[in-house]
Each structure stands twice: as C-alpha cells, then as structure tokens.
Amino acid sequence: MKINQLTTIIIILIVLIIPGYPGNVQARPETIAILHTNDEGGARENLDAIARYKNELKDKYDSVFLISAGGALTDHDMIQAMNQTGYDALNIGAAELAVGQERLQQNRDQADFPFLSANIDSSGSYLQQPEPYIFLDTEKGHLIAVLGLIKVTEDGIPPVDPGILGRLRFTRPVQAASSYSYLDDITNIYIGLTYFGHANDRNLAEAREEFDIIIGGYSKTVIKNPPLINNVLITQAGSDTDYLGKIIIELDNEGQIISRDASLIDIKRIY
After folding, report:
1. Staple 145 to which of 74, 93, 96, 183, CB 3.0 to 4.6 Å?
2. Which pLDDT score is estimated for 223?
3. Contact (CB, 8 A) for 79 and 49
4. What's the pLDDT score for residue 8?
5. ∠ at Cα 227 (58, 247), nearest 5°?
6. pTM of the model as a whole
7. What's the DSSP call for residue 188?
8. Phi then psi dihedrals of residue 259, to 5 deg
9. Where does the pLDDT of residue 106 fall: very low under 50, low under 70, confident under 90, or very high at 90 and above?
10. Where does the sequence pass through the membrane (predicted)?
C-alpha cells in the first residue's frame, strides 16, 4: 500500500472514529468567514491591512480563515509577511514553481502554513511531496477541507519553464480531484483552491459537484458577482491584493450549509 493511501485511511479513521478529534465535537450552528487572495505577485504593502481586518472579523464571526489560491511570488520577504498576516494555506501556483525546487522547498520550510497541491507528484525530486489538502477545524466543531490544484497544459506540465521541473510529474486537475471526492463525505465544507483560471474553475464545478466552493487564481479575474455552477460557488479576487475575497458560510446545528455568500472588498476600504 502506498504511503499516501495509508495516510488517507488513517485520517478518515481519526475523523470518523476517535471521539476527541475536533471534527467530532458536538457541532453547533456557526457562521464562518473565509478570506482569500490570489496572484499576489509579491505585493506585501496591503498585507498589514488584511491582517487587521482578519482580526476584526474574529469579533463578528465564529471562525475566520485566510487562504491563497497561488501566485504569491514567494520569496523570503513575502513568506515572512504572509506568516505575519496569518495565512492558513497557500496553493502552489506557477509563481511558486517558477523559483525552482530548491527555493520552493526553502519557502515551504520558512512558512507557518502549508503549501498545497493534489496534482503534483514529487517522487524522486528535491521538492518534498506537497500535502494535497488541509483540514481546518472551526471554533464550534465543524471541519473544512481545502484541496489544492494547479493548471496543467496540453504538454502535461504547468505554465512554467520545463527546465526547472526535473522529475516532477503532474496529473490533470479534474482527474486528481476525483481521487479526493471522499473529503466531501467527512467534512462540513469542501473547498477547491485552484490555480488554473476562471473558465477552468467552471469546468471543474461541472465535473466535480462535490465541491461547495472553488476559490481560483491564474486568470486574475475580478468576480464581483460569483456564479453558482452545478451548486458550486466560484470566486476569484483579481490580483496584487487590490481586492480581498470574503466568503460567509452559515452552518446549522447539523453542520449543513444553509447559506454561502461571496463578495470582493476593495482593499482601500479596509485601511
């Protein structure tokens, strides 16, 4: 049995069997805020404002998280700034890969948050295998899964210089997502964190209805009126942290989603 398959089975057993696991705490009605950015491009000047806003929301909502769909241009200074801002996860995008495997691994080691990708296979490479997803535990005992996916071109690789990829191998995003459909069954909220453009996000929603929300990047689309495709809410927040995405999710006392509302905040409004 492959190690990742064994790990998956262990996680499922923890979630479903062990009473003390946070995801099995007696859940209560809850309102959750998911903040998101993408294609930050190394822009750090707005991160202090985002950190303050995130902390302010903790007085208004039960649980608050901050995630990036990728494209952060993760040099040392950007990683430190994202640490201080309180990011909970980063999807590996083209900008993350473009720095090369050694630098990418160094950035991962410096980060206080995981770098995600479910369709990168780094077996035999310098880069350590990325986590495909992360579980986020809410304050009232609910569980959120966030799955990371990167664009794969017709050539079978992401849109970066092939020379930096070495032995890295890639799976088509929809195919990779199908291997993790069980996450919908063991969590209250299932989020796809993607880096392959809004049109492909819509295609993913059509193909994989288990997602509750898809938060995208790569196309740098400013989505002020997020569409609902196949009952999947799809959004994206432009680029360069000019906008901050905000998703408010309400859960009932059974942990079922009763509302999802996504909006974009002009970053100037939170200064």
Report:
1. 183
2. 98
3. no
4. 57
5. 5
6. 0.91
7. S
8. -160, 150
9. very high
10. none
Tokens of 254: 């059974």
User: Which single residue is written with the structure tokens 């995801």?
Assistant: 23
| Residues contacting residue 154 through CB under 8 Å, at least 6 positions apart | none
Question: At 109, which amino acid appears?
Answer: D
Q: At what angle do helices 76-85 and 101-110 cross, to 10 degrees?
A: 30
Q: Which two tokens stand for residue 119?
A: 């369709």
Average of per-residue pLDDT across 186-192: 98
Q: Distance between CA 162 and CA 66 in Å, rounded? A: 31
* Residue 85 exposed, middle or buried by CB count within 10 Å (0-12, 13-18, 19+): buried
Decide: 58 and 64 in contact? Cβ < 8 Å.
Answer: yes
C-alpha 251/C-alpha 189 separation (Å) is 9
At 2 the three-state DSSP class reads coil
Q: Which helix (H) or strand (E) holds 265?
A: strand 257-266
Q: Are the CB atoms for 171 and 10 separated by under 8 Å?
A: no
Q: Which tokens belong to 192?
A: 């796809």
- Rounded distance between C-alpha atoms, residue 241 and residue 37, angstroms: 6
164 contacts 100 by C-beta, under 8 angstroms: yes
Average predicted confidence (pLDDT) for the chain: 92
Q: Which two tokens stand for residue 196?
A: 């392959």
Q: How many helices (H) and strands (E) does the chain have?
A: 8, 14
**Dihedral angle sign, alpha carbons of residues 70, 71, 75, 81:** negative
